[in-house]
């Protein structure tokens, strides 16, 4: 089978500087490729997600693969795909479009500079719950603090609100010590508004209002650097608490980054963030036209 060249790049999404944020590879296809070939590329690129873009019937279709499987939705790789379209001059600064995915059409838009953009993600509600005694003890041992509140969610993420004085940024990690439902996704968050503005991290030149970290060892993710779905989940809580039309979320992971969060249509949150282009080039891979059926449904989804 002959080799063909496919444009590819790596974007660090929701990053305010190089070597921060959440990395995603983006590959520009000129024809459908089969799932086996897509999975092999994602495994070789070895990013948390690789985004594959293909234009069909005048629409851009998008799929996301981890090194081991296809996933139905990924926030940071969607931002990476948007910025890649701008870099490849497929979308002009200030313009928007819909990306057609297995989760339906996702509205995205580049800002006027072309260096940042917006995407709209669904937000599941927070449901009051009780933390397990083991989690309470773990947070006491590691941070000297107990949760002020605790929720479950339809995403299967659990969310714990910590007091502002807890040293969340310095927490070395919790993945190996989480048990039960917390292993499927635990968001630890706290307010930052009590800190002086000059002491807070900033996103798009705006000071952060809250920060969080996200651990999901049950999903194979000890800690995710910057998690769009987690911020979309908790943003309504902070919008309500602060009485604001927008809030700024920061993720104080070892590869930090953040986003501006605004309420969009019912049940949806608009996330705005920037990205850093770390590398660009071409992939030399086998030509593969076996994936037309698996891509066809995306071109007509509504």
Describe the structure.
It is a single chain. The strands form 2 sheets. The chain has an 8-stranded mixed barrel with strand order 1-2-3-4-6-7-8-19, surrounded by 4 helices. It has a two-stranded antiparallel ribbon with strand order 13-14. The radius of gyration is 19 Å and the shape is globular. The model has no long low-confidence stretch (mean pLDDT 92). The protein has 2 domains: 3-117 and 276-300, Diaminopimelate Epimerase, Chain A, domain 1 (Roll); 126-266, Roll (Diaminopimelate Epimerase, Chain A, domain 1). 20% of the residues lie in helices and 40% in strands. It contains 5 helices and 19 strands. It has 302 residues and is an alpha+beta fold. It has helices at residues 35-45, 75-87, 133-143, 228-242, 292-300; strands at residues 3-13, 22-29, 49-56, 59-65, 70-71, 96-101, 104-110, 116-122, 126-128, 149-153, 158-161, 186-191, 202-203, 206-207, 210-216, 221-224, 246-251, 257-263, 268-286.
- Protein structure class: alpha+beta
Q: Specify the biggest β-sheet.
A: 8 strands, mixed, barrel
Care to count the β-strands?
19
Name the shape in a single word: globular
Look at the structure and give the CATH class of the largest domain.
Alpha Beta
Distance between the termini: 35 Å
